[in-house]
């Protein structure tokens, strides 16, 4: 809630700024995984001049470097590590340096990715440079998002929702940018260059938005009082992120993980008082209450990251070469997943089923393991062991619809149910524990993707 003496957010400029900042923070990750076909062609040794970059159905290119798997793993591990590291960085590195420095670093790294479109390079060095970029970009993204969540802790909770909404649209935006690049009609190299320049523009807009905040009365009012407001406001914001029945539910794994900063930042300040509180929450006690919900969250992300995008990006259309086969993977894999995942998360704004006492939740979560063999038996040309049992495109589309909706819904459901299973003063610990298990699920899924890829 905004304070009564606070100025108005004229023309909603602060809200728009945080929305764009949210969009900008997840653009790099989404643009990397959506462009997997481009990277596969470059790594196949076709070269940027002869590759049909972003312009043909090249999802069938041999993935000798296991790019799909490595890009997922090297995105999640730095995210976890630097989210935790940011909990200590805030004590010695000014917030402006962390946010602005991270934005500039991400901009330069993505500009390098765009520049490599014009550079002929052998697959080995290209793979190494790209993986290093992925690792560093996600490291800076973790620091950036964690710092922005800390800043949002001083703002009304509505602005956290706007920030998360912006992040939720990043995947859809990346998929649409891919489709526009493919349909633009320009030559392949120009199309790829335009695609990778797009997130650079998004990062530049984020920098402008961040630099404009101190010049807006509404933002200046809250940010100037950060030291006196942060403790109470961060508690309110974090609680709403984890409990809201509206749209305050984090809309991606990365976003939820970054709320850990808010939990850890307050621990050094609260330690002197905690021994005096008879109701000090015990981590073990809270874990005993939420362990089943936490395990469900781990399993949801383990299944999702084990096949998306490592396996799903390899599926091609079974129809003859043409327009549909060209657009099949960007539409049916990335765009469809992001839209349906967002829809699944939105469903928890209207109902929560099954509830925290039901044993149906573990059953529903375990049933998602069926998606692993289903996707592996779809039309993936590069295979040496398993047969193709579902060659028609309709099978893959149906599996993806159910896969994405169930992922979004079950992620939001578990994050909503965990705080309801503990006492009010234990919700902070519950949020930190759920964040840990979320990151564990991401890492397990990324690691398992290597095994499933090898079994094809």
UniProtKB/TrEMBL annotation:
Q: Which domain of life is it from?
A: Eukaryota
Q: Where in the cell is it found?
A: Apical cell membrane; Basolateral cell membrane
Which GO terms of type biological process are on file? Answer: adenosine transport; hypoxanthine transport; inosine transport; neurotransmitter uptake; thymine transport
Instruction: Please write the reaction equations for the catalytic activity of this protein.
Output: adenine(out) = adenine(in); guanine(out) = guanine(in); adenosine(in) = adenosine(out); cytidine(in) = cytidine(out)
One matching Pfam family: Nucleoside_tran
Residues passing through the membrane, by range: 12-33, 70-90, 97-117, 129-150, 162-186, 192-213, 290-315, 327-348, 360-382, 394-417, 429-452
Q: Chief subcellular site?
A: membrane
CC terms in the record's Gene Ontology section: apical plasma membrane; basolateral plasma membrane
Classification via SUPFAM superfamilies: MFS general substrate transporter (SSF103473)
A single GO molecular-function term is: cytidine transmembrane transporter activity
Q: How does it sit in the membrane?
A: Multi-pass membrane protein
Keywords of the record: Cell membrane, Glycoprotein, Membrane, Phosphoprotein, Transmembrane, Transmembrane helix, Transport
What family name appears in the similarity comment? Belongs to the SLC29A/ENT transporter (TC 2.A.57) family.
Could you tell me what this protein does? Bidirectional uniporter involved in the facilitative transport of nucleosides and nucleobases, and contributes to maintaining their cellular homeostasis. Functions as a Na(+)-independent, passive transporter. Involved in the transport of nucleosides such as inosine, adenosine, uridine, thymidine, cytidine and guanosine. Also able to transport purine nucleobases (hypoxanthine, adenine, guanine) and pyrimidine nucleobases (thymine, uracil). Involved in nucleoside transport at basolateral membrane of kidney cells, allowing liver absorption of nucleoside metabolites.
| Identification of the protein by name | Equilibrative nucleoside transporter 2
């Amino acid at each position: 809630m905004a304070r009564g003496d606070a100025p108005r957010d004229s023309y909603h400029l602060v809200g728009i700024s945080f929305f764009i900042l949210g969009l900008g923070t997840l653009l790099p990750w989404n643009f990397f995984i959506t462009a997997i076909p481009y990277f596969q062609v470059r790594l196949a040794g076709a070269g940027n001049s002869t590759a049909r970059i972003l312009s043909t159905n090249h999802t069938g290119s041999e993935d000798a470097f296991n790019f799909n798997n490595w890009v997922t793993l090297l995105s999640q591990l730095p995210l976890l590590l630097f989210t935790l590291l940011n909990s200590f960085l805030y004590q010695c590195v000014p917030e402006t340096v962390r946010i602005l420095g991270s934005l500039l670093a991400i901009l330069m790294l993505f500009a390098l990715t765009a520049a490599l479109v014009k550079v002929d390079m052998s697959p080995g060095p290209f793979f190494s440079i790209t993986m290093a970029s992925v690792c560093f970009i996600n490291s800076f993204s973790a620091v950036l998002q964690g710092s922005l969540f800390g800043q949002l802790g001083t703002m009304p909770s509505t602005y956290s929702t706007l920030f998360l909404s912006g992040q939720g649209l990043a995947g859809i935006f990346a998929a649409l940018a891919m489709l526009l690049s493919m349909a633009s009609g320009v030559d392949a190299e120009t199309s790829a260059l335009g695609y990778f320049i797009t997130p650079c523009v998004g990062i530049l807009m984020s920098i402008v938005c961040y630099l404009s905040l101190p010049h807006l009365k509404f933002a200046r009012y809250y940010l100037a009082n950060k030291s006196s407001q942060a403790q109470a406001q961060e508690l309110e914001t974090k609680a709403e992120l984890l409990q809201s029945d509206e749209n305050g539910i984090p809309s991606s794994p990365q976003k939820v993980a970054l709320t850990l900063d808010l939990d850890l930042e307050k621990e050094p300040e609260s330690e002197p008082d905690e021994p005096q509180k008879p109701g000090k929450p015990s981590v073990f006690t809270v874990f005993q209450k939420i362990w089943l919900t936490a395990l469900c969250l781990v399993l949801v992300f383990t299944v999702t990251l084990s096949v998306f995008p490592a396996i799903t990006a390899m599926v091609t259309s079974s129809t003859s070469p043409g327009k549909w086969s060209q657009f099949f993977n960007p539409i049916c894999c990335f765009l469809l997943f992001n839209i349906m995942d967002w829809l699944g998360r939105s469903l928890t704004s209207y109902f929560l089923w099954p509830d925290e006492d039901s044993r149906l939740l573990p059953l529903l979560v375990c049933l998602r393991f069926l998606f692993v063999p289903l996707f592996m038996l779809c039309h993936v040309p590069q295979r040496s062991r398993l047969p193709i049992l579902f060659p028609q495109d309709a099978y893959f589309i149906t599996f993806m619809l159910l896969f994405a909706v169930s992922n979004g819904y079950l992620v939001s459901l578990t994050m909503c149910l965990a705080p309801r299973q503990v006492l009010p003063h234990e919700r902070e610990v519950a949020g930190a524990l759920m964040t840990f298990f979320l990151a564990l699920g991401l890492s397990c899924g990324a690691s398992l993707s290597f095994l499933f890829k090898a079994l094809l």
